[in-house]
Design goal:
Layout lengths: L4 H19 L11 E8 L3 H14 L4 E4 L8 H9 L3 E4 L21 H19 L5 E3 L6 E2 L2 E2 L1 H7 L4 E3 L7 E2 L13 E2 L6 H14 L2 E6 L11 H13 L4 E4 L1 H12 L13
Parallel strand pairs: 1-2, 1-10, 1-11, 2-3, 4-7, 9-10
Antiparallel strand pairs: 5-6, 8-10
Helix pairs in contact: 2-7, 6-7
Bound molecules: zinc ion.
The site of zinc ion (ZN) has 5 residues, from loops.
């Protein structure tokens, strides 16, 4: 089969890309762990406080909760207590604006980037009032990086309100090349309703084999919506407990701070390479 010049050029480029991807060295994670898993929970849901938190506490795992202004006088003391225990409270905007659909209460269709940035800024202040922290991570509502079709990530970047931001993705969301990672577009495995424990564990194994980082995006746990059952959540936790020697389970900010210190181009010192 003959290739046109254009095809040859594309083949050359994809070869180069494959080289770049495979040449990225996996990070050496703390305590000789092989990989990191970050558990994240969106939308400040009561089912997370009632069902996910006790399972996480029992296992001794920290996780990240992306909160909105749905936090209220009855839950704020509980979120605050979690922050004191080392859990992370992340920013998920005030009103969770998304592109219009039937279950969206606040539409982002006609919002400007500045309006969105202001929402994130005010939510940062609200979270500061809860936990006193000055650095914040962010998760895009509905995993959308656009407003009315226009991308606002670079606008958000200019305001320096958040250190790292999580986008969506599927089971391919495994980060191994941290030196080329956009810190405001960090992919995650966004669960659908009733994801099985087999699917979750298969993803964790894939992350472990890659030597990289995998972020899981949960919503309801044993209740609310886009629900993962409490039993499935517990099975994942049990698997992680069994493999805690090899897998680091920590918050989004801690995992990324570590990765940034050890692999991003502007960090100090040489890249510690995994011994082969
Ligand atoms: Zn959300």
């Amino acid at each position: 089969m003959r290739h046109s010049y254009r095809t040859k050029f594309i083949l050359l480029l994809s070869g180069l890309f494959a080289f770049l991807v495979t040449s990225a060295q996996p990070l050496l994670w703390p305590h000789h762990k092989k990989a990191v898993i970050v558990l994240t929970y969106d939308d400040a849901l009561l089912s997370q406080l009632n069902n996910a938190v006790p399972q996480l506490q029992k296992a001794g795992f920290k996780a990240t909760f992306f909160l909105t202004s749905d936090i209220d006088p009855s839950t704020i003391p509980r979120w605050r207590s979690l922050a004191k225990q080392g859990f992370e409270l992340g920013n998920h905007t005030l009103y969770h604006p998304c592109s219009s659909s039937e279950d969206v209460t606040v539409s982002s269709d006609h919002m400007t980037a500045y309006q969105m940035v202001r929402e994130i800024e005010i939510m940062n202040r609200m979270l500061f009032a809860v936990d006193g922290k000055n650095t914040r991570t962010f998760a895009y509502p509905c995993a959308e990086t656009t407003l009315g079709g226009k991308d606002y990530v670079d606008s958000l970047r200019r305001y320096k309100l958040v250190k790292y931001a999580r986008i969506g993705g599927d089971t391919d969301a495994v980060v191994t090349d941290f030196s080329h990672l956009d810190l405001l577009r960090i992919p995650s495995f966004g669960l659908e309703d009733s994801t099985s424990s087999a699917a979750l564990i298969a993803y964790v194994k894939k992350v472990e084999q890659s030597g990289g980082m995998g972020i899981i995006m949960f919503h309801g746990i044993g209740g609310d919506y886009i629900t993962t059952s409490s039993a499935v959540h517990q099975e994942l936790i049990d698997f992680l407990v069994k493999n805690r020697k090899d897998i680091w389970i920590t918050t989004f900010q801690e995992a990324m701070d570590y990765a940034a210190r050890h692999s991003l181009p502007d960090r100090q010192g040489p890249v510690p390479l995994r011994a082969h």
